[in-house]
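Supplementary Text 2. Reproducibility record for the structural model of the 133-residue chain.

All settings were left at their defaults, and a single model was retained for analysis rather than an ensemble. We include the record here because the model underlies the residue-level annotations in Supplementary Table 4.
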Amino acid sequence: MKKCLAIVLGVGALLLTSADFVQAGGGGSKADPQVQIQNRAGARVAVLADATKWIADGANPANFQAYGGKVLNPNQLHTFKVKAGAIQVVAQLLDGAGAPVGAPDVQGYVVAEKALLRLKVVQAGGNAVLQPQ
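Retained model, structure tokens:
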């Protein structure tokens, strides 16, 4: 009987500790939406998953990475965390020296909480083109 009581008390204490631990998280966590971009262009590309502020600030290629942009090699994949709502995604082909080639592709999307937007960059007519994956 004493063994059973000790086990019940031990399990009860464990459950109370677990409940306190779960509550310490602030009622659950909100997962940020994500944008996953894969380079299928056959060349290096520069991509930016939430370019709204970068575009509003003048879209200067020199500070592209300061706004969270990434350069992807062929077949490379990168996942960006973004805020829920309207975003603009930019893709730009690069030459061997890293200079822009052709026209960038700018696409608008609306992403919901916890969403995963999967895109790929392909090359068409010498330009980067964003497409659903």
